[in-house]
Amino acid sequence: MSQRQVLQVFEQYQKARTQFVQMVAELATRPQNIETLQNAGVMSLLRPLLLDVVPTIQQTAALALGRLANYNDELAEAVVKGDILPQLVYSLAEQNRFYKKAAAFVLRAVGKHSPQLAQAIVDCGALDTLVICLEDFDPGVKEAAAWALGYIARHNAELSQAVVDAGAVPLLVLCIQEPEIALKRIAASALSDISKHSPELAQTVVDAGAIAHLAQMILNPDSKLKNQVLSALSQIAKHSVDLAEMVVEAEIFPVVLTCLKDKDEYVKKNASTLIREIAKHTPELSQLIVNAGGVAAVIDCIGSCKGNIRLPGIMMLGYVAAHSENLAMAVIISKGVPQLSVCLSEEPEDHIKAAAAWALGQIGRHTPEHARAVAVTNTLPVLLSLYMSTESSEDLQVKSKKAIKNILQKCTYLPALEPFLYDAPPNILKHVVGQFSKVLPHDSKARRLFVTSGGLKKVQEIKAEPGSLLQEYINSINNCYPEEIVRYYSPGYSDTLLQRVDSYQPLTH
Amino acid sequence: MATLARLQARSKFVAQQYYFRNSVVDIFRKKEYDAAVKIQSWFRGCQVRAYIRNLHRVTTIIQKWWRSYSGRQKYQLIVKFASCAMKMNLYNAMAVRIQRRWRGYRIRKYCFNYFYLKEYLKAVSETNDAIREALEEFAEMKEREEKKADLEREEKKRDYQARKMHYLLSTKQIPGIYNSPFRKDPDPWELRLQKAKPLTYQRSKVKQKRCISLSNWLACTSARSFPRSEILPPIDRKQCQGPFRDITEVLEQRYKPLEPTLRVADPTSELKAAREEVRRQAWMRNVNDNMFLPFSSYHKNKKYIPLMHSSSKYGPNSYGSQHFRDENPKKWICDKDFQTVLPSFDLFSKYGKLYSKAGQII
């Protein structure tokens, strides 16, 4: 009898513990409860339960801890300060897969908040055990371990280097080949976080043979997986020409272009980021993209989305056009300029407008043909208004000014230049008048048009210091016309005529 | 003496005359002297002039010849240079012609080939159009697939609902709710209900695990546990970095084949299988399948009429002849009855697996 009673006491206690830990784990899923839990001192209560004899209580306690640490970084710091991590790491190596999943979840939740917390995790030797977990046969455990490693490596290059030194990269590449979609996603995201910091880390990832598998997964229909894969490839390709060439050699073109037509906005964004990172290195890579029809796909993609999603595509066009005039001409014939001017006028955000202005400047700066193609779409007045408006940010003003200057220095399309005579500030007016002075001496039709449209009148009204460049230009324009016409249009001519009328004495016969 | 006298008489005269003549001559002397001087100077002058004229003439001739000579030299030089210059100009002009042609050719062919650029841009725009078409098709295909998937899902849902609501079908007596008599045509749900097969009552039974025989336990190990890649890793791959065991060791331990005990390894239907075997042997040997009746019942070919207590409406109850326990199949968890199982001896399973060599024949 007494034995049973004694055992009953123990059973009740176990039941109470189990219930407590399960309720805490459930409450921790709701953010509004967590403050209350924290004030009630849940951390100190959960800590001994991690060492409980019953495995279920251990696992649930670990799960609850993970959810709490996930919520904000104070709780995560409390986890670190409470010396819970070494115990977790030690038992990670020994326990069953549910515990491993829960412990890896705790490590992930702690490591995601700041580099110091992630460093604390690395310092207690968690990386080795996480890497051993990556070899486990249960895909849930692998996923949790890969997630934790990814969050640790995300913060800075030293932490990424620590993760790589623990030997995680080959195992992550193996994880990518597993059939479970969730595991592939997490492994791809971890590789992306590792390779984004420096070229050496990206080279390590490439040496493990990741590119071929990532390139195969572009065809997968799951859109979150595509996001991660494209982001991983773009983080690899962005560092140097060799890495970008290796990514291209994996035959991602023209498959990547189908991703530009995906329903998910972020897949489009990541795909255009990848193409941008490849295009920006050398003219040969840009040429490759142009030859594969990438420019047309990117332009269509820009047309079909709005806001920040467009930004990488716009920058990609700018980079391609910046390399050489043939590539800029290729962008022009793919109907890129109307699309870019639409972006410039209808986007509300300044940084996207600045990118569009920069891209247009790169397209139009090469030869008069290019400048004409840009000027014909009536973007120059828009650029001028952006430059002059007080609401534009400094970056936008600087970029639009540079774009206007670059285009104007090559523009010989006079109908687009004429509006500039009227409302341009003096530093831009100089270039406009300079262009007129270059074109007018040789073209008689243009001269006629210049006079009839009132341009000559406006030029006379410009006040310039004698000896300055502007005055020289004005003089060379005036030299194209007979003197009477110049005098006719000079300001105050009607007044001088009237004065002559006043002072004329008619001959009295 | 006469002469002397004459001379002396004349001496005065002579002196006079002498003076007179001297003075007169003096007067004329200057004149004559001047005249003589003039004449002489004129003559000398003429002489000198003639001489000088001669000299001039001669000098002129010499100078003429010298000048013509030197002029001719200069002229030859000039002609030489002029002809050189003309030749050089000609060569220059010809060289310029050649260079002009060559430079034009070189720029057009190697540095900036306008026609090649035009072709290239045309090819690029054609590729662009092709890609745009292909992408449009791809997007359309995706949309169609999605729509199809949506439609199928809807169909399945409606089907399931129709199966659940099959009792709302209209009968001959009572029109169902979807078949109101005031309607011209029955509601489409009515037709769907007609086509639907009613759901069977799912007995709560334990999910049947697929019966895996123990011999291919290895085959049933989950596909997830063994990483499969299409390309095999190279043979001389170096060890992965980290605290890993040797891969062969690990695989050996992980995929150690099961060594079941005798009790587990024996199939439980052994007794039944043995009975079947005996029956089969007997059937093989039999000539005639009919039961061999004893002679005493040869004439008794009446059908046996069972007791009413032990028969049911549809024939004799199997209770009492085929099974002797009260059974209630509706209460069974799974749809099989208890089996008679004779376990094998545990003793024999330890044979050969103990460390001690007691009892072994040496």
UniProtKB/TrEMBL annotation, chain A:
Q: Which residues form a coiled coil?
A: none
Cited Pfam families: Arm
> Can you supply one Gene Ontology CC term for this chain's record?
axoneme
MF terms (GO), sorted A to Z = microtubule binding
Q: Where in the cell is it found?
A: Cell projection, Cilium, Flagellum; Cytoplasm, Cytoskeleton, Cilium axoneme
Kindly give the SUPFAM superfamilies that the UniProt entry links to this protein.
ARM repeat
Subunit info here reads: Interacts with SPAG16 and SPAG17.
Question: How is this protein named in the record?
Answer: Sperm-associated antigen 6
Question: Which species expresses this protein natively?
Answer: Neomonachus schauinslandi (Hawaiian monk seal)
Q: What is the lineage of its organism?
A: Eukaryota, Metazoa, Chordata, Craniata, Vertebrata
UniProtKB/TrEMBL annotation, chain B:
**What are the GO BP annotations of this UniProt entry?**
establishment of meiotic spindle localization; mitotic cell cycle; spindle organization
Domain of life of the native organism: Eukaryota
The record's subcellular locations are: Cytoplasm
> InterPro entries from the xrefs?
ASPM (IPR051185), IQ_motif_EF-hand-BS (IPR000048), P-loop_NTPase (IPR027417)
Keywords recorded for this protein, A-Z: Calmodulin-binding, Coiled coil, Cytoplasm, Repeat
State the GO CC annotations: cytoplasm; spindle pole
GO: which molecular function terms? calmodulin binding
Q: What is its main location?
A: cytoplasm
Q: Where does this protein have coiled-coil stretches?
A: 117-159
What this protein is called in its record is: Spermatogenesis-associated protein 17
Question: What species does this protein belong to?
Answer: Neomonachus schauinslandi (Hawaiian monk seal)
Q: What is the lineage of its organism?
A: Eukaryota, Metazoa, Chordata, Craniata, Vertebrata
